[in-house]
Design brief:
The protein has 378 residues and is α+β, with helices and mostly antiparallel strands. 43% of the residues lie in helices and 13% in strands.
Length: 378
């Protein structure tokens, strides 16, 4: 079982031009800069001149403490991307490359390299003309993201065996997440539990919700399949001009899972119009119009393959995953901010409070949300 309290590490700056030489990248290195706002890996955007053209790549240093099996993770990603590229055969080569990530081969023959310090690096082609958003600007964006994640699951239903490796055991084991939270409360190593009594009580009063999907799996009501497992809104790239969804990114957590978890995590991240660390909780709520867009996009993308048992579990999945995420932020706050990077004191507690306020809003609108899901035509 992975240490679910986790921990991010600091690695010193590196020469990205030197890292680039380990990959099959032609041309002259021009520049590099930090890229994105991810909590876990270190991500950079590099630029090369190739025969008079400027070509960009996304270079990442993997967090080996968060991902204890980086080799297994990269093998999962390689298999998934090969399958997706094979499925996207009806488009032009250039357009097809915008519809899924493309790993740049390392010169050692694999999909990644190790530097002298033992750090693991990988490189993707940058998808030009794309953008991501952290907060949904319209129901259309929520719909497009759901359609992308739903299509991602659908295309991987027939991924040839063997099953992908479970590189993060217990990743969505919400009851286990609550056990880790209880341990953090008991230890209280940073003397922070007293300021979070209300949040701690809120989470544990909902412990029955935590294991709902796992119980359905144990009963045989839900079946595992390939899932993304981290379906935040900003893990879908949108066309910068048309707004159409292009590509699902951040595949580190792709492994066996439950379909409703992916739906629920997208609702958690995309149907809340407030920022993830919003301090004014009056701004936090479940936006029903955004939820409707997500439900419509998800159900359309999975039309013909979605069991009725999964459809019936979608709303509870959104509630359960929101509880789980709130518990994770709370655990990290109590443990000293070891997993999710923070940029100010109390940021993880604020992130926790946003999730719990969102869950409260879901509880208040649960009947309406169920009606939307059941009423969507597919």
């Amino acid at each position: 079982m992975i240490d679910l309290a986790g921990g991010f590490f600091y690695a010193p700056p590196v020469d990205l031009e030197r890292v680039g030489r380990e990959f099959e990248i032609a041309g002259t290195f021009l520049r590099a800069a930090p890229h994105g706002a991810g909590h876990i890996n270190d991500t950079f955007l590099t630029e090369y001149e190739q025969s008079g053209r400027r070509v960009r790549y996304v270079v990442q240093r993997l967090n080996r403490r968060v991902f204890p099996d980086p080799v297994g993770m990269m093998e999962n990603i390689r298999r998934v991307l090969e399958h997706l590229h094979g499925r996207i055969t009806t488009r032009s080569s250039e357009e097809g490359e915008r519809r899924t990530l493309t790993l740049v081969p390392a010169r050692n023959g694999g999909g990644y390299c190790r530097d002298e310090a033992g750090e693991i690096w990988r490189t993707y082609r940058f998808i030009e003309g794309s953008r991501s958003v952290d907060v949904a600007e319209s129901p259309r964006q929520a719909y497009e993201a759901a359609r992308a994640f739903g299509a991602f699951q659908k295309m991987l239903i027939d991924l040839p065996g063997p099953p992908l490796k479970e590189t993060l055991p217990g990743f969505h084991d919400t009851p286990r997440r609550l056990e880790v939270l209880q341990a953090a409360v008991s230890a209280d190593t940073e003397n922070r539990a007293s300021q979070a009594k209300a949040e701690i009580g809120f989470v544990f009063r909902r412990s029955d919700l935590a294991g709902r999907l796992l119980r359905l799996r144990a009963e045989g009501t839900l079946s595992e399949r390939v899932a993304h497992n981290d379906t935040k809104l900003n893990n879908v790239l949108l066309d910068a001009i048309t707004g159409e969804s292009l590509c699902v990114i951040d595949l580190d957590t792709v492994m066996p899972g439950l379909g409703p978890w992916d739906f629920g995590d997208l609702v958690r991240s995309a149907a809340n119009p407030a920022a993830e660390d919003e301090q004014d909780l009056k701004k936090v709520h479940l936006d029903v119009t955004l939820f409707e867009g997500i439900a419509r996009g998800w159900l359309e993308a999975l039309s013909g393959v979605l069991p009725s048992s999964e459809r019936a579990a979608l709303v509870k999945a959104a509630m359960g995953i929101t509880l789980e995420c709130g518990a994770r932020f709370l655990t990290d706050h109590l443990a000293g901010d070891r997993y999710f990077r923070v940029h100010r004191p109390g940021q993880n507690l604020d992130r926790c409070r946003v999730q719990l306020a969102l869950l409260r809003s879901m509880e208040e609108r649960e009947e309406d949300l169920e009606g939307i899901v059941q009423g969507c035509k597919t």
